[in-house]
Structures are given as C-alpha cells and as structure tokens.
Amino acid sequence: MTSAPYGGKLINRVLCDRKRGAISEDLGKLQKIVVNRTAALDVEMIAVGAFSPLEGFMGSEDYSSVHSELRLSNGLSWTIPIMQD
Fold first, then answer.
1. Does residue 43 contact residue 10 with C-beta atoms inside 8 Å?
2. How far is CA 85 from CA 5, 22, 49, 52, 53, in A?
C-alpha cells in the first residue's frame, strides 16, 4: 500500500531518456549559470519531487506565508523557505 504524496500531488521534473534525447541539441544552446552547492541540491530536490507539492522555488506569496505562518499560501504546513539566492 502506498500513501499519497504530501499535498496530494507528486512533482516529477526529471526528463525521461526519450524526451531528453529529443531536446538535447536545444539544451546545449542554453546559457549556463554557476550556482552554489545548496542551490544545486535544492534544484535536484525540486526535480525529483522531494519538495512536493512545490513545483519550483517559492514565489513571494508562499515565502511570506511560510515566514509568518509556517504554511504555504494554500494552507499546507511548510516550515522551510525554498528560494533562489
């Protein structure tokens, strides 16, 4: 028996091999940026669904709500702000 992901939605932002192959040429054209280890780990955690139901870094509304109420703006309990540097 499996349990439902927190917030009812598991986020998966990892491309399967077929999709990755189809866009690999385009990926090489994108600008590369250097990020610190913490940011890289946060991106990985978002990608694999470890921060579900977050779909990316927090916007200002979620950040403010977590900071003041320890909840996402949708009311789910959340105590850690996940944001870009």
1. no
2. 27, 31, 20, 20, 21
Split into its structural domains, the chain has a count of 1
Residues paired with residue 71 on neighbouring β-strands, in sequence order:
77
Residue 41 backbone class (left: φ over 0; alpha: ψ -120 to 50; beta: rest)? alpha
Q: Which residues contact 73 (CB under 8 A, 6 or more apart)?
A: 61, 62, 64, 65
Residue 28 lies in a domain: yes
pLDDT tens-digit map of 13-52 = 887 666 666 676 777 788 888 999 999 999 999 999 999 9
Residue 80 domain-assigned?
no
Q: What is the pTM of this model?
A: 0.74
